[in-house]
Fold this protein.
Amino acid sequence: MARTSYRYIDWTLGADPAQPSHRRIECADCPAASGDSPGQLGPDRWALQHAGATGHRGYRETVISHLRATPAEDA
Ligand SMILES: [Zn+2]
């Protein structure tokens, strides 16, 4: 009879330093969007220019953060 044993380990989840976060701002009043950007200023600048050009005042922000799971023993 074969015998099997399992070993369970703890994992941690944190930011992946090799993958920068990206931001996108979408207009809530029309389909226009800033596009993905790793910086803060690009999407903000786009939204302010869009507000000035169209008068649209509602916006949604999406932030994409890359995470990495690591065995707790390696931390
Ligand atoms: Zn708009």
Remarks:
- The pocket of zinc ion is lined by residues 27, 29-30, 32, 50, 54, 56 (CB under 6 Å).
- The mean pLDDT is 91.
- The chain is about 20% helix and 30% strand.
- Helices lie at 41-54.
